[in-house]
Amino acid sequence: MFSDLKLPRKLKYYDKPLLDVPLPMDPVKCEKFKTQELVNTVWAFATLQHLKLKVLEVVKDEMISRCKAGAQRKQMVPQDVSNLVWAYGTLRERPIALLMELADLSLRHFVSEFHPQHLINIAWAFATLRVPHDLMKAIS
Length: 140
Fold this sequence. Notes:
Elements (H helix, E strand, L loop, with lengths): L15 H4 L7 H4 L4 H13 L5 H16 L9 H14 L4 H15 L5 H14 L4 H6 L1
């Protein structure tokens, strides 16, 4: 998505006009991106506190599809779940269907593999967004 752009690793200032430029978020092309690339995109907008609803919607739909398709372990790792949940929590966006799918996937595959920081990020985001799920019992 952004791999073609040559951006500095760290923005020296918040360029709102640049961030408000419409992004070409084609759901068909979105399927070609690695999970980490999609997660990093949402994470970047959350870090900048910049809400791009179209981007969030397309990534949400793609990630739900991947979770329901039984995302293979090589496609998604615990850090992807942690970063994505943290990003939505930071943006105060509450995509319940996605959060439930990520929590279910985590219970099935990742619960014993999360690092403490991953668990903290997930617990914080679920509490912030008021999302009840058995994952919270599993990590407590």
